[in-house]
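Take one record.
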Amino acid sequence: MSRGTGLPDRIRRGVEVALEELGLPGDVVGARPVGGGCIHRGTRVEVSTGVSYFLKWSQDVPRGVFEAEAEGLRALREAGPVTVPEPLAWDEGSPAWLLMEYVAPAADDVRGAALGRGLAAIHLSDVSRPSAHPSGPDAAGGPFGWSRDNWIGSLPQSNPVTASWGAFWRDARLSPQLQAARTRGRLRDEVFDRLLDAVPGALATVTMPSLIHGDLWSGNAYASSAGRPVLVDPAVYLGDGEVDLAMSELFGGFDRDFYRAYDAERPITPEYHAFKRDLYQLYYLLVHVNLFGRSYEAGARRAAEGALAGLS
């Protein structure tokens, strides 16, 4: 460890070199742990110039994790008025790290109307730039997906460019997670198979892709000290914007004003309340089954049953 900072020497030296290359020279003089993360370590890094940065680092992560996160942060920054920390530099070695702008949180952490309007603006933004998404036989529709795969938590998340949103949600989201759970002897219920069969038709009306955050729970959104909504830790791709709404409702933490403001800018569809909320929450519940075990199985079954009931 680097004396006085608590950071490994390799990270401290790497951060200082990166800042020098960015024209922001300075020595790392302090590092304070920042809570909230459950996968990587979060640290507020203080530099001799008086500037603070936010550093995420981990001893052992798959190659590409932080590069994918940096790409997601940049996409969100381009898409809307919500504050998103600027990624500055990263290193995929061991330990791996990602350095970004530090956005100080407010004392009162509110996720209300301003965030709802900002998220709607992101979902309504022009995200169909050809340079961002590869061409191919499946790219004639939406396209849905992304230019690279990324991660949801510590699990890989595949983002194949796909013309049909329903096919994408079934084949790139639900099926891989359900199969992973079943290899552990879980979730053998026939209700999941019936739902998978119904997904493409159920989502056939979703034809306009939106840039989505992809992991919008309360821990990944906060208010800055300037009072602006902030989004962090994305798992971006092009999909149905209501995926973000479903995730935001799964574990709570968002004000009712958030949903009212969102709906005023981008009306929430009747299908969302009928079945899409359950259908989209099912993905995240399956992820939690695979990350944390059986305590999430009942919730996954309820979501699958709710989605099917809404479709009947």
Remarks:
- Confidence is low (pLDDT under 50) at residues 128-140.
- The longest strand covers residues 41-47.
- The longest helix spans residues 270-292.
